[in-house]
Amino acid sequence: MAQFTSATAAAHGRSGGQRSHQHLEQQYADLVLTNPSAAERVAALIRQGHRLILALRVVKIVDQMNAGGH
Predict the structure, then answer these.
(1) Which contacts qualify for 47-52: CB closer than 8 Å, 24 or more apart?
(2) What is the pLDDT of residues 11-20, one digit of tens each?
């Protein structure tokens, strides 16, 4: 196992962040393909300056509320 140093921690943080961002992009791509209306709402939130993760969560929560699921 590699020795834990600030350099290896920083490298792990960068790669973890890249994986996380790729996962978010995949979620958005899936949303575009399955629900163009929701994807447009996410895009509108992004244009207003919100981050992708927040926009995805807001649309998901609003859709659940509209469906009666809290």
Answers:
(1) 52/24, 52/25, 52/28
(2) 655 555 566 7
Residue 59: exposed, middle, or buried by beta-carbon count in 10 A (0-12, 13-18, 19+)? buried
Dihedrals φ, ψ of 6, to 5°?
-60, -35
Q: How far apart are CA 63 and CA 55, in angstroms?
A: 12
pTM of the predicted model over 0.85: no
Token readout for 8 is 């290896």
**CA-to-CA dists, residue 45 to 5, 8, 36, 48, 55, angstroms:** 39, 35, 14, 5, 6
